Automatic annotation (TrEMBL):
It comes from Halobacillus andaensis. Gene3D superfamilies: 3.10.450.50. This is SEC-C motif-containing protein. Transmembrane segments: none annotated. InterPro entries: SEC_C_motif (IPR004027). It comes from the Bacteria.
Length: 385
């Protein structure tokens, strides 16, 4: 088992909601969580609203095997109408063939029109036929973006790769061709997605260039794909980006690369960023989310300074970090109390009906930006979850 997973696996069963919440966030973009752990998390999601929210917003990248699928079906059966919709959002976590293996249990929950689309992709017998389906989906996306159509295009891409009708050379070639055009099209975007099946370090430098484009859909897909590599080459490409003007997203990716080399890079960045509080806060959060004792000196020093930007809930993060690595600190219970108070305020705010406001155009928040709802959380941990 990977050393990161080894460090956290025994704490997945914690009864401490604060620790559980941070653990969930630490694996939100890590694609190699074992099926037995994912199944346990789905089981825990039925325990309370807090656990359900923590799990559902952080396991969207987990591939569901048999154990997870079984628990997911139980969740669908037990949930009320509103919560069932949230569980159904995880349908993309299940391979196409597995959906059909469990069709009798899933038919009450998945719309018939979706089954029709799945069958169309699954039942093709010729390469040209599947490429025609894929081309039609690309055309629909180009006419008007739809997350539903995008998901079906990914299903078609999955099938192309499974049947060996798309090679890694063709995928990287399509990405590079799209990058040379005035703008990256949906075929380029889908081939970025395809490269997660081919995590070869040769492709890292090409993908890293896409992290600087001004298009969230491309940046997010690239980051998601790079998370499948978990290699030193990714760290080497991210490191200079972490010192640039747009450093928030690369630092997030560095924290999601759960290797000793990535942690060492975060520690080096901490030493080099003494004059930027927000940057240091993100770096310390990233170190904490590795749950390694190697970073204890930097985390302790930062918490001792006691000056925070509010970009990260450092009380919550530091408390969970110290609990997982089994280290004492005199402020441990103070951090827990502060974190729980903020979480209670957050749930109170989320339970209130929205206020009617005049129309106001606002800039879209990035995943690591403060949430515009005013909760004080990062967007990806709040309304963007």
């Amino acid at each position: 088992m990977h050393s990161f997973l080894q460090r956290i696996k025994d704490h997945i069963h914690t009864k401490d909601d604060t620790v559980f919440r941070v653990l969930m966030y630490s694996i939100s973009n890590y694609p190699y969580v074992p099926d037995d752990i994912t199944a346990e998390l789905l089981k825990y999601s039925r325990q309370s609203q807090e656990r359900r929210m923590a799990v559902l917003s952080n396991i969207e990248k987990a591939a569901f095997g048999e154990a997870s699928i079984g628990e997911w079906i139980k969740c669908l059966k037990d949930a009320d109408t509103k919560e069932r919709k949230n569980y159904l959002n995880l349908v993309s976590n299940v391979e196409l063939e597995k959906l059909f293996e469990h069709r009798s249990e899933l038919e009450p929950f998945i719309p018939e029109k979706d089954w029709t689309s799945y069958e169309k992709i699954r039942n093709v017998s010729e390469e040209e036929e599947l490429y025609m389906i894929y081309a039609d989906l690309l055309q629909d996306l180009s006419a008007e973006y739809s997350s539903r159509v995008h998901d079906f295009a990914k299903r078609a891409m999955d099938e192309l790769i499974k049947r060996e009708w798309l090679t890694e050379e063709e995928a990287i070639g399509a990405v590079e061709e799209s990058m040379s055009a005035p703008y990256l099209d949906y075929n380029g975007l889908l081939n970025i997605y395809a490269l997660r099946y081919f995590p070869d370090d040769r492709y890292v430098s090409t993908l890293a260039k896409l992290l600087t484009v001004d298009e969230d859909l491309i940046v997010d897909e690239t980051g998601n794909t790079l998370n499948y590599f978990q290699s030193d080459a990714v760290v080497d490409e991210l490191y200079p980006l972490c010192k640039g003007d747009d450093s928030v997203y690369p630092i997030g990716l560095l924290s999601e690369t759960k290797t000793d080399y990535a942690l060492a890079a975060l520690r080096n960045l901490y030493e080099e960023s003494a004059d930027d509080l927000e940057l240091r806060e993100l770096i310390v959060e990233g170190m904490c989310l590795h749950f390694s004792e190697e970073a204890i000196q930097e985390v302790e020093a930062f918490m001792e300074e006691g000056v925070f930007s509010g970009m990260v809930d450092m009380d919550e993060t530091a408390y969970a970090y110290f609990k997982v690595i089994n280290r004492e600190h005199p402020d441990l219970m103070l951090w827990k109390s502060e974190a729980e108070d903020r979480e209670e305020q957050f749930f109170d705010m989320m339970s209130q009906p929205p206020l009617r406001k005049p129309f106001e155009k606002v800039e879209k928040a990035g995943q690591n930006d403060p949430c515009p709802c005013g909760s004080g959380k990062k967007y990806k941990k709040c309304c963007g979850a």
